[in-house]
Amino acid sequence: MSETQVHETKPEWKERAWIDAQTYEAWYRESVEDPDGFWGKHGKRIDWFKPYTKVKNTSFEGNVSIKWFEDGELNVSYNCLDRHLEKRGDQVAIIWEGDDPNEDRKITYRELHAEVCKLANVLKSRGVKKGDRVTIYMPMIPEAAAAMLACTRIGAIHSVVFGGFSPDSLAGRIIDCQSDFVITADQGLRGGRTIPLKENTDKAIEIAEQSGAKVRHVLVVRRTGGQVGWQDGRDLWYHEEMEKASAECEPEHMNAEDPLFILYTSGSTGKPKGVLHTTGGYLVYASMTHQYVFDYHDGDIYWCTADVGWVTGHSYIVYGPLANGAITLMFEGVPNYPDSSRFWQVVDKHQVNIFYTAPTAIRALMGAGDEFVTKTSRKSLRLLGSVGEPINPEAWEWYYRVVGEERCPIVDTWWQTETGGILITPLPGAIPLKAGSATKPFFGVKPEIVDNDGNPLEGPCSGNLCIIDSWPGQMRTVYGDHERFVQTYFSTYKGKYFTGDGCRRDEDGYYWITGRVDDVLNVSGHRMGTAEIESALVSHPKVSEAAVVGYPHEIKGQGIYCYVTLMAGVTPSEELKKELVAHVRKEIGPIAAPDKIQFAPGLPKTRSGKIMRRILRKIAEDDYTSLGDTSTLADPSVVNDLVENRQNRH
Ligand code: WTA
């Protein structure tokens, strides 16, 4: 193991931080020894129409049941908007920075409140009711946040689908949650290029309707003014509907355990799962982690570069920050447009204090050269964050030294769509940093590292990361399939939530996430199931079989490596590879485009027909000299051909 550098907590970090080392220790102890007392107290950080009398009622055993604050009533949009009006109605809530550096907007809490109330009335007038599922397929514009909040105002459940997903993926998500209302835009704009969101929506609805789904309305924001198809009666312009709507809308009183949103995410098997989060616990957890992890103080300008299509955008662009009355920056563009200085130019332009991004962006910008960074000021920056995948120590040190000029602590936050909020993270005033470590658990989080048989490991160790007790932000179920929830997360190690991640704990009790140990890939911080990509490949008429594995990729973290067996008589060619890449892009979306395709006459299988991915991973990594035991293969000779034709040679 290489020497890791410890960065001690600087006095100035400690001074301004909400949480110092002693407070962390004391609160952490209380949070795990007396969760009812701890969360009973901290649950009050948000406003309740009806206060809760019960706090925690959770079990990871049997049918798994998770309830927090179960008799309380609240409304998320009320907490994110109404309750701030008196004190900070005229404070900016959202700073929007367009893809084009000349475009920006500032929206105050009062303005956002009016927008959300109007939109909630539009939804109501078009028949959306409490409990209905609304699909949001939007670019990064303030209307996306307004759409989410408008749903919460009337108790509708939103399902945000990332704008980079294909019509097929969108259709699958519309079908799965039986959503009959879609909010989208004419086109998105990213890196100077348009994305045909309305056209994709039209195609998705066509596909979904073949499976019996019925979409009643599509509400369309005019973003670019580009040409779109139109179905009278079904399609509605956002601006026309909003003109007619009243800006008064009473927030629905929701039970703490009423569903708040569904967010689809990939697992190791099958189709993406609809992760369901509920109202009370989620909001308490998102707002509390946002305040303490990013050490948010009144007036700070906070920027999370994620997309609202991912959980990071939900919890740390919209819900956490707005519940805290923060100023949250929303960015439509990409890190390298117009050039690789863009992030830092935006930081200077809006005087950003807190900046939260993904390792893949950091690595790409590091590769572009320091001068893109150093020619900007960045003096406003005070804290940096990282999320989405393990950050390698080199990228961490570069972020710390070049971007933050050794002035800003880095919070490397580990969490998942399923966890709702950050679970393992430094708190900037409390915990000395180690480059590449997510450090310690947040309040109420009980990590456990287990061996492959589920035995808990003590002290410094390496194994599989489980969480052994519930926290308020935890997902409650897989939408419409509770059995799958129990199977996926609580059956590998009985009675424990299994994260799917590998993890090491060092001699100081710091946690180091080593990446997924299941068949989930993490490509540029985007989660993808190998099974999904395989099924996209075999849906191509020339493909008979496919196996997909990840391999280390300098910028993306992991690259997508596909072994493809063709139908008899089909000739392998470079053109066919391109065709297959295009096919996967069409089926899932550009984020799933294969990096390498290897045509394989046969795949290594056991005699019972199970593909031995271990071998495929090794070959993809160009580590074919240590393939381990191949004697159990049905046909050991296929391995030679695979090694011979490997696509990664170092
Ligand atoms: C990975 C994103 C290491 C991990 C919030 C996890 C990380 C998956 C980190 C969840 C981190 C996320 N260090 N790995 N700081 N953050 N991951 O659901 O493998 O899109 O299981 O949620 O990303 O991805 P998801």
Automatic annotation (TrEMBL):
Q: Which residues form the Acetyl-coenzyme A synthetase N-terminal domain?
A: 24-80
**Binding of CoA, residues:** R190, G191, G192, R193, T312, N336, S524, R585
Reaction(s) catalysed by this chain, per the record, are: acetate + ATP + CoA = acetyl-CoA + AMP + diphosphate
Q: Name one GO molecular function term.
A: acetate-CoA ligase activity
Give the InterPro entries listed for this entry. Answer: Ac_CoA_lig, ACAS_N, AMP-bd_C, AMP-bd_C_sf, AMP-binding_CS, AMP-dep_synth/lig_dom, ANL_N_sf
Sites where the protein binds ATP = G388, E389, P390, D412, T413, W414, W415, Q416, T417, D501, R516, R527
| Ranges for domain AMP-dependent synthetase/ligase | 82-467
| Xref: Pfam families | ACAS_N (PF16177), AMP-binding (PF00501), AMP-binding_C (PF13193)
User: What are the N6-acetyllysine sites (modified residues) in this protein?
Assistant: K610
Residue positions annotated to bind Mg(2+) are V538, H540, V543
Q: What class of enzyme is it?
A: ligase
Q: Which SUPFAM superfamilies match?
A: Acetyl-CoA synthetase-like
Q: Which cofactor does it need?
A: Mg(2+)
Please state the Enzyme Commission number of this protein: 6.2.1.1
Q: Which UniProt keywords apply?
A: Acetylation, ATP-binding, Ligase, Magnesium, Metal-binding, Nucleotide-binding
Spell out the family assignment given in the record's similarity comment.
Answer: Belongs to the ATP-dependent AMP-binding enzyme family.
Biological role: Catalyzes the conversion of acetate into acetyl-CoA (AcCoA), an essential intermediate at the junction of anabolic and catabolic pathways. AcsA undergoes a two-step reaction. In the first half reaction, AcsA combines acetate with ATP to form acetyl-adenylate (AcAMP) intermediate. In the second half reaction, it can then transfer the acetyl group from AcAMP to the sulfhydryl group of CoA, forming the product AcCoA.
User: What is the protein's given name?
Assistant: Acetyl-coenzyme A synthetase
Q: What is the lineage of its organism?
A: Bacteria, Pseudomonadati, Pseudomonadota, Alphaproteobacteria, Hyphomicrobiales
